[in-house]
Specification:
heterodimer, A: 326 residues, Rossmann fold, seven-stranded mixed beta sheet, five-stranded mixed beta sheet, 38% helix, 21% strand, B: 337 residues, 2 domains, six-stranded parallel beta sheet, 8 strands, 42% helix, globular
């Protein structure tokens, strides 16, 4: 184990996979000379050269579309989108091409493709650069959508994504890059895609979270513990496939749940998870499932207003109290 | 060129024509669903290019793809089976008219979102460069309508910036659905769009299979020899509507008639007779053989079974992955049993 930041864990996963397999390469805006907008690929160009660290024009459809083409003919591209907000410029390729080609051509086409994108608000970038639209992408069968909440999972899941023969959208969170944790150093450390994970055990309330809200839920759980409440945190880690088993297993013990996401509530991850809880464990429900999410507004620039809109630790803490005490 | 090769080109054009005519009938009978875009009138393009493509050359096209599937080497019976949605179809009945492919023949579809396959084609060429397949060219077909969408411009720009071995071929049949080139494109010669990317280009006539072969062959070798991407515009015409439900309000019957006088099959037939390459009898024989091939294709397709119910959940992913909401239960079944 080594203690490192999320940024280092992601960078290490990429580096190790590029060392391991010559067919792995990265392309995107400023991944090379610049070293990555978020410095994830710093030093990569010197080590791997221009062939495998490819700066692209600012043209998202070309970035993702050409990565699909390269994947079809046997490579393992990692296409980086500077932020997930720019994924909309490549929407057709992300949701209407990559997830369809294997199925639509009767299994002939394989797409070992990873699209990395940075999600999340809270950095005063205003409405078009601050979204957490993860749930939109999780709507499409054929795409895998992964979003880790800890450095260890980031490393293990990104390595699995790169080794996967399916298209994976790997969503990172900008405000988590500095989050620290213990990370296995094994070069073959893999976390399975499509498996939720208990990040903290507890018997009083189930908090379902992923990505940034895992970190917030950990803080909220510490606060709840001071009140004598033991929260169990289930980290979804991937939104599609969605592994409900640990959620249901936990809920059947606690009978109470909060689902926390950074994105909007309407048609969101919390909507899906809470619906499934009702479908699969209705007899165990002691209180209505609470959804914690950001305010239904385009995010504002003003720092105070933005913080008012996005999910805070206290929101999760308060929601847990509500499902426990009504 | 050998006589047998001439006859093969002729027969392939006739097979495509008859397959499309039968497809139209089967569509009217309700045996083919969805959209059906016929290739009738454009046969010289796919047959010409298909005949000079090397096995290592990757071919990718848009939704008007039946002719391309046959010219890529797919047996017409698998094309017809796909049209009927049968398990023996090119895509096991899951793609339909617009999505035919055979990766073993290096034919990569059949793509139905206008222009979306253009950046994908650039990536395939990148894959060849990356893997050191120095003599491979990606031949990417698209219609005139596709040259007005962003995908086209992003794809062409990237191919030039990275000097990728792509032969971009615009099959200009002069209408994007019902909108003429003049009404949709700022320049009426599509080839001019390559100028903005510093890319060599040319515009040729597309109703004569020999012209298509000769002109395309030259530029294909240019790209193969490291010349970088090239945009070739081939001017052609579709005799039928855009798809089966087309009222054709956008063009005069006289215009269609004028182009029908240049029917690529008639043009080539006359050429073979005038040059005394083949006799009337020999060509009639080819017509009859084509009829047999098409009859057999239809029989094969009609007797091929539908995919079974299980196929619904197959091929969502390449790797064993739980299927969501299967039977409205917590599905843990693997799709690859």
């Amino acid at each position: 184990m080594a203690r490192m930041t999320m940024r280092e864990a992601i960078s290490k996963a990429l580096w190790e996979e590029m060392e391991r397999d010559e067919n792995v390469f990265i392309q995107g805006e400023e991944v090379g000379v610049w070293g990555g907008t978020y410095a994830v690929t710093k030093g990569f160009l010197d080590r791997f050269g221009e062939k495998r660290v490819r700066d692209t024009p600012i043209a998202e459809a070309a970035i993702v579309g050409s990565a699909i083409g390269a994947a079809l003919v046997g490579l393992r591209p990692v296409a980086e989108l500077m932020t997930i907000n720019f994924a909309f410029a490549a929407m057709d390729h992300i949701v209407n091409e990559a997830p369809k080609l294997h199925y639509m051509f009767g299994g002939q086409f394989k797409l070992p493709l990873v699209i990395r994108a940075v999600s999340g608000g809270g950095r005063q970038l205003a409405a078009t650069h601050s979204q957490t639209p993860d749930a939109i992408f999780a709507h499409f069968p054929g795409l895998k959508v992964v979003s880790p909440g800890t450095p260890a999972d980031a490393k293990g899941l990104l390595k699995s994504a790169i080794r996967s023969d399916d298209p994976v959208l790997f969503i990172e969170n900008a405000t988590l890059y500095q989050a620290k944790g213990e990370v296995p150093e094994d070069e073959d450390y893999l976390e399975p895609i499509g498996k939720s994970k208990i990040q903290r055990e507890g018997e009083d309330v189930t908090i379902v979270a992923y990505s940034k809200t895992v970190q917030l839920a950990m803080e909220a759980a510490d606060m709840l513990a001071e009140d004598g409440i033991e929260a169990e945190i289930v980290d979804l880690r991937s939104l599609r496939p969605l592994d409900m088993e640990p959620v249901i297993e936990s809920f059947k013990r606690t009978n109470r749940a909060v689902v926390a996401e950074e994105g909007w509530r309407g048609y969101g991850v919390g909507s899906e998870v809470s619906a499934r809880i009702y479908e699969l464990a209705f007899d165990y429900v002691d209180a209505p499932v609470k959804r914690v999410a950001q305010a239904e507004v385009p995010l504002p620039y003003n720092q105070r207003l933005e913080q008012l809109a996005i999910v805070q630790t206290e929101d999760i803490y308060n929601a847990a109290k509500e499902v426990i005490y009504g | 060129m050998e006589k047998s090769e001439h006859l093969n080109l002729y027969q392939e054009m006739v097979v495509i024509r008859r397959i499309e005519e039968r497809a139209a009938e089967l569509y009217q009978k309700g045996k083919i669903g969805g959209f059906l875009h016929l290739y009738i009138g454009q046969e010289a393009v796919s047959v010409g290019i298909g005949s000079i493509r090397q096995p290592q050359d990757r071919l990718i096209t848009a939704y008007r793809d039946h002719g391309w599937a046959i010219s890529a080497g797919i047996d017409p019976k698998y094309v017809m089976a796909e049209l009927l949605g049968k398990v023996d179809g090119t895509s096991q009945g899951k793609g339909g008219s617009m999505h035919m492919a055979d990766t073993e023949l290096n034919f990569w579809g059949g793509h139905a979102v206008v222009g979306a396959h253009i950046p994908i084609a650039a990536g395939m060429a990148l894959g060849d460069v990356y893997q050191g397949n120095d003599d491979a060219v990606t031949i990417c077909m698209f219609g005139d309508g596709a040259t007005n969408i962003g995908f086209f411009h992003e794809g062409l720009n990237l191919s030039k910036v990275w000097n990728l071995p792509v032969l971009w071929v615009c099959e200009n049949n002069q209408y994007g659905m019902g909108t003429s080139v003049e009404r949709a494109s700022a320049v009426s010669e599509i080839r001019q769009k390559a100028e903005g990317y510093g890319m060599p280009n040319n515009r040729i006539e597309g109703m004569n299979v020999m012209t298509v072969r000769e002109e395309t062959s030259k530029v294909l070798e240019e790209v193969r020899n490291g010349g970088g991407p090239y945009l070739l515009e081939i001017v052609t015409y579709r005799f039928r509507g855009h798809s089966m439900g087309d009222p054709e309000r956008y063009r005069e019957k006289d215009e269609v008639k004028k182009w029908e006088d240049e029917d690529p099959i008639g043009v080539f037939r006359n050429y073979l007779l005038e040059e005394e390459i083949a006799s009337e009898e020999e060509l009639d024989e080819q017509d009859e053989e084509a009829e047999v091939i098409v009859d057999e294709a239809v029989d094969f397709a009609e007797s091929s079974p539908d995919p079974d119910d299980e196929a619904l959940f197959e091929h969502i992913y390449a790797e064993p992955t739980p299927v969501e909401y299967r039977g409205y239960a917590m599905a843990q079944e693997s799709e690859e049993k």
